[in-house]
Design a protein that fits this description.
Blueprint (H helix, E strand, L loop, with lengths): L1 E4 L14 H9 L3 E5 L10 H5 L4 E3 L1 H5 L3 E3 L17 E4 L7 H10 L2 E4 L14 H18 L21 E5 L3 H12 L3 E6 L2 H10 L5 E4 L2 H9 L3 E4 L14 H5 L6 E4 L20 E4 L2 E4 L9 H30 L7 E4 L2 E2 L2 H9 L1
Helix pairs in contact: 5-6
Length: 360
């Protein structure tokens, strides 16, 4: 099968969908791999590294013309003309918050598989997990940075110092993002609170984090109380395939101390904070009611040398299945790919995505 890897065109996106090591594995299986010129440069993978393993270097048309197209982020408007009914696109899509992308894919008659809705045999999201780990850790770093007064924050050091209280970090959602955010915040010696609606998950976190965080069941009033007293709020709420619910309201934002910071990691799915709107690494923050909002829609792109292999390690087995067996055969071999298929032959087929787009 011919496999194409275009260069990412989303602003400030420096990841690439396939490492040279991954390309070698696919070529060794008899497949033809095309990499767009400089696609891997931002992730420290120059063209020569791909050529050395047998990949071909071409332009965007060469890569988009492949039967299987691998990307990191959803197609941008400038790429819509490359979409066709002869390709399967495998990438992060987040269609619930991207109706224009969904419409373009459907009009082209394409088949599109979303990393974020592929499931393993236990119902987990194995291709979302590595970027959730990265985003969770980055969320605390970003929050700490923008709490600094020269950057518009209230001037709080999360770890405090001897005789001065640590900053308060409130994390809403105890999944992979929330857990990784908690680990970093604990490492900074902040006072950390995690809220979640899954009691089983809260019990797991109690054991995992050895009692070093405050764990609270996430009622509306509990969220409001914790947000009001927080220096940093991290939104980490996920509904696979669907838009994220607004668990932090505008009223809660108004109750926060001016100069506090919120980081909405759910921004790709529409955001779980009512005042969220997508930002970029070049212009990452804005202020609402005195509260600094960091809502970068591709946070892991800030660390592409780490994020690229983390992503490709997870995706490569699925890419190999698709290349070896085609979509129909891959679905028989790995049923967890089925919920990943958001669009097939131009038709929306993922129920959560359909519901979200009909409601938008």
């Amino acid at each position: 099968m011919r496999i194409g890897v275009p260069r990412e065109t989303k602003q400030d996106e420096h990841r690439v969908a396939l490492t040279p090591g991954g390309a070698y594995e696919l070529i060794a299986r008899g497949h033809e791999v095309w990499i767009e010129h400089d696609a891997g440069r931002g992730a420290a993978h120059p063209d020569d590294a791909y050529v050395q393993v047998g990949a071909r270097i071409g332009n965007a048309a060469d890569c988009w013309g492949a039967a299987l197209v691998l990307k990191v982020k959803e197609p941008q408007a400038a790429e819509f003309g490359f979409l066709s009914d002869e390709q399967t696109l495998f990438t992060y899509l987040h269609l619930a918050a991207s109706p224009r992308v969904a419409d373009a894919l459907c009009r082209a008659g394409a088949t599109a598989i979303a990393y974020e809705t592929v499931e393993d045999r236990h119902g987990r999201l194995p291709l979302l997990a590595p970027m959730s780990e990265v985003a969770g850790r980055l969320a605390v770093q970003a929050g700490a940075r923008f709490l600094e007064q020269p950057r518009g924050g209230r001037g709080v050091l999360l770890g405090g110092v001897a005789g001065v209280a640590a900053g308060n970090v409130t994390i809403i959602g105890g999944g992979i993002v929330g857990t990784n955010a908690a680990v970093v915040a604990i490492g900074m010696q902040a006072h950390v609170t995690v809220l979640d609606r899954d009691l089983g998950r809260l019990r797991d976190l109690e054991m995992m984090l050895d009692g070093r965080v405050t764990l609270i069941y996430a009622t509306h009033l509990a969220i409001a109380e914790q947000v009001a007293s927080a220096d940093l709020v991290i939104g980490a709420v996920l509904r696979p395939g669907a838009r994220a619910p607004h668990v932090v309201t505008r009223e809660m934002i108004r109750a926060m101390t001016p100069g506090s910071v919120v980081v909405d990691v759910a921004v790709d799915q529409g955001g779980c904070i009512e005042t969220t709107r997508p930002t970029t690494h070049a212009d990452p923050v804005y202020t609402v009611d005195g509260v600094v909002h960091y809502c970068v829609a591709n946070m892991p792109a800030a660390v592409p040398v780490t994020a690229t292999p983390a992503l490709c390690n997870a995706t490569l087995p699925y890419v190999a299945l698709l290349a070896d067996h085609g979509l129909a055969g891959a679905l028989r071999e790995e049923p967890g790919l089925r919920p990943g298929v958001n669009i097939r032959d131009g038709q929306l087929v993922n129920a959560a995505v359909v519901e979200a787009l009909q409601a938008s």
